[in-house]
Each structure stands twice: as C-alpha cells, then as structure tokens.
Hints:
Pfam families: DUF983 (PF06170). Keywords: Membrane, Transmembrane, Transmembrane helix. It comes from Tabrizicola soli. By secondary structure, the chain is mainly alpha-helical. The protein contains four helices and no strands.
Amino acid sequence: xxxxxxxxxxxxxxxxxxxxxxxxxxxxxxxxxxxxxxxxxxxxxxxxxxxxxxxxxxxxxxxxxxxxxxxxxxxxxxxxxxxxxxxxxxxxxxxxxxxxxxxxxxxxxxxxxxxxxxxxxxxxxxxxxxxxxxxx
Length: 136
C-alpha cells in the first residue's frame, strides 16, 4: 500500500461524531466544519461546503424529512386539538384556521432542519458515498 492509500484508509476508519453532526445539520450548517451553509435556498443541498469543501452531493434524503415532519407535526398537534376542543370549545372556523396556520408554520420550520439533520446523519455514518475512498 502506498502512503496515500494508508492515509485514506485511516481517514475512512476515523469515527465521525454523530451528535455534533446532527446539531450542525439541524442548524443547516455543514456537518464537517459547522461554519458553511449546507443549503442553497429552502431545501436544496449544496454540492460542497463553501468553507471546507466537504462534498455534500452524496446525500440521499429523498422523502425522509417529509415523513418525519408529518410524524412530528401530527403527534404534536393532534393531542393539542383534542385538548383545545374539550377545554374551551372554540368556534369550528376559528379552530380550523388556528390549527391550519399552526400546522403550516410548524411544517415549514421543521422540514429544512430535519433535512439538514438527515444529511448530517448520512455524513456521520458514511452512508451513500460520504467518506468513501477511491478504488484501492
């Protein structure tokens, strides 16, 4: 093995901490350096970090962030809907408008953050080509 291949193998085996990567992804920052923005726009992931040049084009978030958003929003607002209805009995139109706005706002807040966290998890676990070395 050449010295470059040894360094590449050692770098590949080096552990990437998951918690800091997830926090950086939640903040929509590069999972490697935490300084560069991960997103270009609302949900488009950059091909590479503008600060550390870490390749981010390997990500395969697909529908995962949308499913997680639906799961979280549903589990938060469904019990709240029941509590509000049983405790105060508001006008149905008022309740529908309030919960519609709450659902949309919470979904728009969570979706890019969950996508960033999912991309960061893929990076930390070296999934889908993150951290893979060229053929040896």
